[in-house]
Design brief:
Blueprint (H helix, E strand, L loop, with lengths): L3 E6 L3 H13 L2 E6 L2 H8 L6 E5 L1 E2 L2 E2 H11 L4 E6 L4 H10 L1 E6 L4 H9 L15 H15 L4 H8 L3 H9 L6
Parallel strand pairs: 1-2, 1-3, 3-6, 6-7
Antiparallel strand pairs: 4-5
Helix pairs in contact: 2-3, 6-7, 7-8
């Protein structure tokens, strides 16, 4: 595992630095970037074995960046991290070429295992998976956002009564 090239792209500086230090201790040669634009310039000159990419960057989408990385280096194993976890994002991540998808906050060991696990084996289940209530809440939030925060349109698409949706939207997110 020594001297494997790792690319980390996240606009959260403290998280990016902690992750970089932890992955360097695990034997990776790490380069970090805060923007998609910087990465696009760098991947033209260098191939990486692994990439950890945040879903939402200030200047672009992590999904699009993973596609760009795959185009320049098909053998790069990319992992998508996001604070906005939902099933649709996970599916989109895999379709974009990511080997896995992890919701933030993710443990360093969990990230390492996702990057280095054999493609033939399924990764171990998470120690603290999201509850069904949390997954439901995140799905509703995603549809609400996609409907430009229009309660009536969101309720129609979710086949739910508008008042029921309003009650759900007024509550805080369920605990993990």
């Amino acid at each position: 595992m020594m001297n494997k090239e790792l690319l980390i792209v996240d606009d959260d500086l403290p998280f990016r630095e902690r992750l970089s230090q932890s992955m360097a201790k695990k034997g990776f040669t790490v380069e970090t970037f805060s923007s998609a634009h910087q990465v696009k310039e760098r991947i033209n000159n260098k191939l990486f074995d692994y990439a950890i990419v945040d879903m939402r960057l200030e200047d672009g989408s992590g999904l699009e960046l993973i596609q760009e990385i795959k185009k320049h280096s098909p053998n790069t194993k990319s992992l998508l991290l996001t604070g906005y976890g939902n099933i649709a994002t996970a599916v989109a991540a895999i379709k974009s070429g990511a080997i896995d998808y992890l919701p933030k906050p993710a443990e360093v060991d969990q990230i390492y295992d996702a990057l280095t696990s054999s493609e033939d084996l399924l990764p171990l289940p998470p120690k603290n998976p999201m509850t069904a209530n949390r997954i439901r809440w995140e799905h509703i939030q995603r549809v609400f956002f996609q409907c430009n925060r229009n309660v009536s349109e969101t309720a129609r698409r979710l086949r739910m009564h508008r008042r029921t949706l309003q009650r759900i939207l007024n509550k805080h997110a369920p605990k993990e």
